[in-house]
Design goal:
By secondary structure, this protein is α+β, with helices and mostly antiparallel strands. The protein has helices at residues 10-18, 64-71, 105-109, 148-168; strands at residues 3-5, 21-26, 36-41, 45-49, 52-58, 74-80, 88-99, 118-132. The protein has 4 helices and 8 strands; from the N terminus they run βαββββαββαβα. β6 and β7 (88-99) form a beta hairpin.
Length: 183
């Protein structure tokens, strides 16, 4: 039922592109730290090569994944088939957060539709690719993407987003440094 792959094959990349949601999990090094799992949606994920992927990191109420990546780089991304044949795909790897000031941010963010809430791009060097059956994952009918985050970010505007990020995205819940939104 479980199978390890040497890389993201073209067939797996095509399947990934059809998925409408994925989950990102990370953890700090400290045993007392909190494990984080975040759902992601929208047109925000790209396979860049057989062992490299990237996704848009949108502004949110926290920044746990970014904090964990800055501390230790460890990450797992999981896709589940909610339609069609059952399948779960996990991409384990080491990620890096490319903020808007990073030299490669513009090139990578151009691979995605513009989004006012984009905070960074996360690029992942995939070290393990595995699939499993997904037999227990329920079937769901997709009704559409939510636009609440897009509307919220657009209403905030650039100055409002900067202020929000300064207030909410400088430290993780465990006190790890995340983004420096200072002047």
């Amino acid at each position: 039922m479980s199978k390890q792959h040497s890389e993201i094959t073209p067939e797996l990349a095509e399947w990934i592109a059809q998925q409408r949601v994925f989950f990102v999990a990370s953890a700090p090094l400290a045993a007392s730290g909190h494990v984080n799992c975040s759902p992601k949606g929208g047109d925000s994920f790209r396979v860049l090569g057989p062992r490299t992927v990237a996704y848009l990191d949108y502004t949110g109420s926290g920044a746990e994944t970014a904090a964990h990546l800055r501390e230790n780089g460890r990450l797992v991304i999981m896709f589940c088939a909610f339609e069609g044949s059952p399948r779960i795909l996990r991409l384990h790897g080491r990620g890096e957060v490319l903020e808007q000031s990073h030299p490669e941010f513009a090139e990578l963010s151009a691979l995605f539709p513009p989004n006012p809430g984009t905070r960074a791009v996360v690029r992942v060097n995939v070290t393990r690719v595995s699939t499993s059956c997904g037999y227990s994952v329920p079937l769901y009918e997709h009704r559409g993407q939510r636009d609440a985050l897009d509307k919220w970010a657009a209403a905030k505007g650039a100055d409002g987003l900067r202020d929000y990020r300064r207030a909410k995205n400088q430290r993780s819940i465990d006190g790890l440094s995340v983004f420096d939104w200072g002047d």
